[in-house]
Amino acid sequence: VKPYPLDVCIVTGLKLGSMGEPPSLIHQGQQFKFCCAACLPKFENDPAMFLQKLSTLTKSAVPQTQNTQKQ
Predict the structure, then answer these.
(1) Coil, strand or helix: which one is 58?
(2) What is the DSSP-derived secondary structure letter of residue 3?
(3) Which pTM does this prediction carry?
(4) Could you tell me if residue 66 is left (phi over 0), alpha (psi between -120 and 50 degrees) or otherwise beta?
(5) What does residue 11 show for φ and ψ, rounded to 5 degrees?
(6) In DSSP terms, which residues pair with 25 in a beta bridge?
(7) Mean pLDDT over all residues of the chain?
């Protein structure tokens, strides 16, 4: 299982833990965390959309490696 890489809810964008212990679930080998239990059904209605959202957010959050070799 891949751990959830964000510190915000995949549904609302709110900081995890802002409403108590964040609920989580595993979907296709990926952990997802939510700000509250009300977000779980929203995720379950369209998990593909949130898989894509996670992919987009993690790609934009990872800095591009630069060539830092000295000449």
Answers:
(1) helix
(2) P
(3) 0.81
(4) beta
(5) -85, -50
(6) 32
(7) 89
Residue type, 59: K
What string of DSSP letters covers 13-50? Answer: -PBTTBTBSPPEEEETTEEEE-SSTTHHHHHHH-HHHH
Q: How far apart are CA 39 and CA 19, in angstroms?
A: 12
pLDDT tens for residues 38-68? Answer: 999 999 999 999 999 999 998 876 555 554 5
pLDDT above 90: residue 35: yes
Compute the distance between CA of residue 19 and CA of residue 29 in angstroms, rounded to an integer. 25
CA separation for the pair 39, 65 (Å, rounded): 34
Question: Which residues on neighbouring strands pair with residue 33, listed in sequence order?
Answer: 24
Structure token pair of residue 20: 């108590």
Q: Which is nearest to 12 in space by CA: 30, 28, 33?
A: 33
